[in-house]
Write a structure and sequence with these properties.
The chain is globular and about 80 Å long. Helix 4 (about 75-100) crosses helix 5 and helix 12 (about 275-305) packs across helix 13 (about 315-320). It is mostly helical. It is about 65% helix and about 0% strand.
Length: about 450
Amino acid sequence: MPSSDPSKRPRDHSLDRGWHGTGSASAFPEGQDSSSSGEVIVDAVASDIFVAEEIVDAEELVDTTAMDTPPGWIRRILRAFASAWEWCFGCVSLVIGLAILATIPIVQLLSLGYLLEVAGRIARTGRLSAGWVGIRKAARVGSIVLGTWLVMLPVTLISSYWYSARLIDADSPVAARWSVVLVIAVVLAVGHILWAWYRGGRLRHFFWPAPLRFVRWLREPGKIDRAADALWDFVTSLRLGYYFRLGLVGFLGTVAWLFIPVLFGVAATDPDADGQALWGLISGVTFALAVFHLPMVQVEYAADGKWRRLFDVKRAWKNWYRVPLAGGIALTITLAFALPLYLLKIELLPREVTYLPSLLFVLFALPSRWVQGWAVARARKKANRKLGWFHALLFVPLIGAAGTVAAFYSLLSFFTRYTSWYGGWSLLEQHAFLVPVPFLGW
């Protein structure tokens, strides 16, 4: 007879199979019908599961199979749309952020470090998708900046009314009331911004303050420590120090490659100097050699993180021998994307608008770094592969075509110093290899 204890009720057989792992044969004695074996199930569960003194009601056990049920198709579509929107917003935020960083002295090395990291990751992994570095984090930073700006818009409007009232009559009751309103608006806006930052800094957090959650949060212990730890973890995850060091070393190594061509180029533009033709020839040849090697050595440095790679000419020539076609394509795209941007070097731009053309430099620099990383990745894949005679036969014309492209770029750069604001020293403004802003007027 079934037990009369109300706490013992029949349960789903799938739970017993999940605990015993041997199916129904191990759960029921021989000859026992599973449809009338409620007592046997409860005894098995009580003996194997409920070892503690307190026996839990079987109805409280959660069916784990329901937790593994995938979400509905509508929810999956919404999640995919939200993920795609975040990714696109992150791309826009990343480009704008790099453009702004590129216009700030010293800080612009972060922008160069990021571009080198993009090429280095593609070279290490061999995947172009690895070049999309930090898109989600850029989306979070962009949402924080945009949300903060939107919240501060009403405060800015109230501040303009308060300022106008003070200009008309600083001691009037209207000015005093606007002063009180401004203080209240600032306190509420700052509190709302900090609360949105604490919850994650997404755009939806700035539009809805979640007051009930805020009340519960006020009662939680250790909230300040958790907020400080979360902020510190997010800042460290950005790896600003790593990108700055990568950009600084890459900048110094590239300047070392360009120093001799620039030095002779400045001497060639001096009307009082002797041998201008000779100095111009030396400048053009050395500049073409630097342009020919820089894409390879920069990517190798970014991929390995060793500063010696910036001057490893032997390794660069090995890469050129393995992939002369890919290397030539990367060099051509890099230099072709850099040429139109020389038009912005003709006149010195005001500091207030430097971030606008900087967007163009970043948009042209990113594809260049992608193809550079792709070329080195192909060279690394062929490191242990024996190349046949046909490859050696094609190497000479392909490397000659790449050298011609570098020489043509060197010739155009020689004439751009007569149109650039900084003259011969403008050869150091190589946005194709240095910081993605070809102007120094701060």
